[in-house]
Design a protein that fits this description.
The structure is a single chain. By secondary structure, the protein is mainly α. It has four domains: 63 residues, lambda repressor-like DNA-binding domains (434 Repressor (Amino-terminal Domain), Orthogonal Bundle); 122 residues; 95 residues, no CATH class; 66 residues. Helix 17 runs antiparallel to helix 18. GO terms for molecular function: DNA binding. Pfam families: HTH_3 (PF01381). InterPro entries: Cro/C1-type_HTH, Lambda_DNA-bd_dom_sf, TPR-like_helical_dom_sf.
Length: 404
Amino acid sequence: MEPNHKLKYEREKRGWSQAYVARKIGTSADLISKWERGLRGVGMQHRQALCDLFNRNAEELGFIQPITSLIKELGNEASLDKDDPMNKGRRQLLQQALTLLCSGGLATPNHISIPTDLYITLSDTALRECWHQINNNTSQASEILSVIAPMLINMALEPSPYQQQLASIATKTLLLRVIAATHKANYIARELFNHEAIQCSRLSNDHLLQAAALTYMGWTYLVCPPVRPEKAIEVAKEALTANRSEKTNIASNCHAIMAEAYSYLGADYKQTALRHMGLAQESYANTTDVLDYADCTPYTLHHNAAMAYLHLGDPKTAIQQLDKSLLQNATPRGQCGSLLYIADAACKINDYDLFKTRFIQGIELVETIHSDHRKALAKQIANRAPKDWLRDDELQKAITKLHV
């Protein structure tokens, strides 16, 4: 790590001691010294505090490389290594893009201090990092999205030569906020963000993105209480129309929505639900569209089918589907959901051993991904489980974690 000459220069220019700066941001003079000598990195919280104190952005204080250099590297296929999203070099670049956007020095809700095309590049790149984070730590991703979203939305709503690009990025940002709000168990916010995503998607002139935003609304009607299956079916049909009969993962997701929605409507709609399950499988394209924002993968195909089978009163088939979902490359939040729903289904077939194993595994992941939504689900399942099962010491220990 190189010495941070810029930070030292800004401090000395003002005649401030390291102890003074430390007091102002709530840390130690020793740590300030280590930052300036390049012995320690500066965390996000302290970066923001220093930017506020010095009235400088992250680049001006030496926390990140110059914008032009970063943009050049972000456009370099070799450094990004798109085939390996966990590539160390690429991850560092993405994190720097996020730092730029969150530093407060580049943009506020009403002003940006760099050219719009550069801001678009940074925003689009930062969203890739958010997509990674939201699958692993929803709380951190939620905080980042709350910083970058207002500016993007404001710019997307203003007529300009960049409006379609900005509307596209704003839509994707809002769809990520939909996911983040769900895992914070903030269902009112989820629905609000989803409506905003649909509004921005219509300005993007991208029919697949419009279809994706509508698809998310379909799931919103099924996830957010009260469940509204009729509304979910209506919006899924609208999404299929926007999809223009193309074979995409979005089309597959639309049928998955309708399968689950019809399963809520009772036995009279069982065959309709099963038909849409089949259509979801048939229309699955096994491609990445809309930067994964269709959120439809081999994992979700099995998981969504399982949800429909649970509502149709067939827990054994639901467990089979959930087991298949776990064999796919599921994200931690996805794995957590499947494990907990297997535990729930195990209660219905009176399989104590399966319940115990999957429930404990699910709670371990709840702690890792910081999802209030999954935690609430785990509590509901515990409340539905036979009381004598919960006397088990290991289960008691797991349940205690839900109330910490």
